[in-house]
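[agent] plan:
  1. take the single chain provided in the ticket
  2. run structure prediction with default settings
  3. attach structure tokens to the ticket
  4. add a short note for the reviewer (M.T.)
[agent] executing step 1
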Amino acid sequence: MESTRSPWQRGPRPPWITRVAEGHSPASSGRSQTQRAAARRSCVKKLELGSLRVLPSSSMLRQRITEIDQQKEELKIELQLEIALLQGELQTENSQLHRHTQKLQALQQEVRRKGKHRKTDRQKERESLEEERRRVEELKGRFEEKEKLIPSQPESQRELLTLQLKQEREAMEAAVRAFEDWE
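[agent] step 2 finished; step 3 output follows
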């Protein structure tokens, strides 16, 4: 009878259990011995499978909760260690970045300083070059003036002027060569 079953039992009741519960013999169904054995094995399997669906006991649940809490704590500790390691790496990277930034700034200042020195050195060189150019032009101008004066001078002074012009020409040519080399 279906009403005699307790509420904790699940699934359909095997037929041989129903027959025994109703007072009939398990063999009275008219089945052969092998059929009844197969039916029993099937019922046992169903009961075993049904028992797997039964909820675990409260002590097992508490133990599982404790295990999960312990795993949670272990993971929490692992995460804290990982965070600490990452923070340490970040701090190291930041300090290296700071050092490299300082080196870069120092190098940039040195480049600017050398650039200023180069500009002033170039400017001084240009000024010296211009001064030398004026001096060479002045020498050429004086030489040409003296050269024009030779024909108008008396014979006695011409030899002396020619000798002076020769010396000035050599000095002027040396100055022109030096100027051209410098340029």
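[agent] step 4 note for reviewer: The radius of gyration is 59 Å.
[agent] ticket updated
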